[in-house]
Amino acid sequence: MKEPSLPISLSCQIERKCDPKEPFFTTLGGVGEGGGLHTTEAKCFMIESQRHSYHLVDPSPWPISGSLGALATTVGGVMYMHSFQGGATLLSLGLIFILYTMFVWWRDVLRESTLEGHHTKVVQLGLRYGFILFIVSEVMFLFAFFRASSHSSLAPTVEIGGIWPPKGIGVLDPWEIPFLNTLIPPSSGAAVTWAHHAILAGKEKRAVYALVATVSLALVFTGFQGMEYYQAPFTISDSIYGSTFYLATGFHGFHVIIGTLFSIICGIRQYLGHLTKEHHVGFEAAAWYWHFVDVVRLFPFVSIYWWGGI
After folding, report:
1. φ/ψ (deg, to 5) at 309
2. What are the tens digits of pLDDT across the range 234-265?
3. Residue 31: φ, ψ to 5°
4. Please, is 214 exposed, middle or buried when counting C-beta atoms within 10 Å of its C-beta (0-12, 13-18, 19+)?
5. Average pLDDT of the chain to the nearest whole number
6. φ, ψ for residue 44 (rounded to 5)?
7. Residues 89, 166: one domain?
8. Which of 43, 83, 123, 275 is 20 to 30 A from 108, comparing alpha carbons?
C-alpha cells in the first residue's frame, strides 16, 4: 500500500546529520551557537515521520488571548455606551488585544504554510471550504440590511408618512457618485483576476502590478464613499431610511476596507516570493472575498440608491 506524501518540512531524511549552515535548520531557529540545539549535544536532528496529510497544529495561546480580548471589548463597549468610568479604556485595550492576536495568529499561519510546509493539498482544501462558508455567512449578514431596506420601502408605515423615501428626506442622485462607485468594484475585480492569472503563469511582477491596481481602485472607492457620506443631506438617525442606508453601505464599505488590507498583504507576500502557482491559497481567499465585495455592491445600488431615489 502506497504511503501518503509527507509535508515539505518533513522531507529531510530521518537521522540526517545536522549542518548548522543549511537553510532548513536556519529556518527552524538555528543549530549550534544561538540556536535551540547544539551539535555537541546531539549529532543528529530527529524528525518524526508523519503518516497522514493533515496538519495537527501545535498548542497556541492565541485562541484564549482572542477570547479575552473579545470579552474586554464587549464589556468595555457596554460600559462606554452607558457612560461608566473606565469604559473607554477597557474598550480600547480590548480592541488592541484583538488586533494584536489577529496579527500574531496569522503570522503563525503564514510560517506554518510558507516556512514549515504544513499546508498539504488536503489542508488547502479544508481552508478553501472554510473560507467559502465564511463568505456565505457574510452574504447572510449583509442580506439582512438589504432586506430591511426593501421591506420598509415596499410597505412604508404611517410613521414615515406612508411614502418612500420618508417625508422630509432628501435622497442622493443615484447616477452621480453612487453609480461611479458601482463601476469601480467590478474594475478592481478584473484587476485581481489579472493577478490570479499572472500567478498561475509564474509572472511574479505582473501579479504585483495587478494587486497594486486592485488596491488603488479600492482606495478610490473608499474615498468616494467618504465624500458621499460627507455630502449626504441626512444622517443615520433620520428615520428608517437613514438607518438602513448607513448600515448597509457602511458595512459594505467596511468589507471593502478589509478586502483592501487583504490584498495589500497578498501583494507584499507576492513581492517576497511567498506565493507560487502551486500554492497560493491565501491569495485565492483574498480574490474570492474581493469578488464577493464586487457583487454585493450591486444590491445597495439597486435597493437603496436607485429604488430609494425613485
Report:
1. -100, 0
2. 889 888 888 999 999 999 999 999 999 999 99
3. -125, 125
4. buried
5. 82
6. -130, 150
7. no
8. 43
Structure confidence at residue 170 (pLDDT): 84
User: Do residues 104 and 132 touch, judged by C-beta distance below 8 A?
Assistant: no
The backbone torsions φ and ψ at residue 30, rounded to the nearest 5 degrees and listed phi first, read 95, 145
Predicted local confidence at residue 210, as pLDDT:
95
**Which domain covers residue 93, as residue numbers?**
63-105
- The alpha helices in the chain, defined as continuous H runs, are 23-27, 62-81, 87-110, 121-154, 177-200, 204-231, 239-271, 281-300, 307-308
Residue 178: inside a domain? yes
Q: Which three cell numbers stand for residue 198?
A: 499572472
| Confidence grade of residue 190 (pLDDT, cut at 50, 70, 90) | very high
Asked whether residue 114 is domain-assigned, the answer is no
Q: Is residue 111 one of the residues assigned to a domain? A: no
Same domain, 15 and 76: no
Using a pLDDT cut of 70, give the percent of the chain over it: 83
Q: Which of 161, 160, 217, 225 is nearest to 193 (CA)?
A: 217
Task: Check whether residue 144 and residue 272 sit in a common domain.
Answer: yes
| Burial of 218: CB neighbours in 10 Å, binned 0-12, 13-18, 19+ | buried
Q: Are 169 and 238 in contact (CB under 8 A)?
A: yes
- CATH number for the domain spanning 214: value is 1.20.120.80
- 125 Cβ partners below 8 Å, 6+ apart? none
CB 293, CB 256: distance < 8 Å: yes
Query: What's the DSSP call for residue 44?
Result: B
Q: Is residue 161 pLDDT above 50, yes or no?
A: yes
Type of residue at 16: R
Distance of alpha carbon 110 from alpha carbon 114, whole angstroms: 6
Write out the three cell numbers for 41. 549535544
Q: What is the pLDDT of residues 1-59, one digit of tens each?
A: 444 444 444 444 333 334 444 433 334 334 333 433 333 333 333 344 567 788 888 88
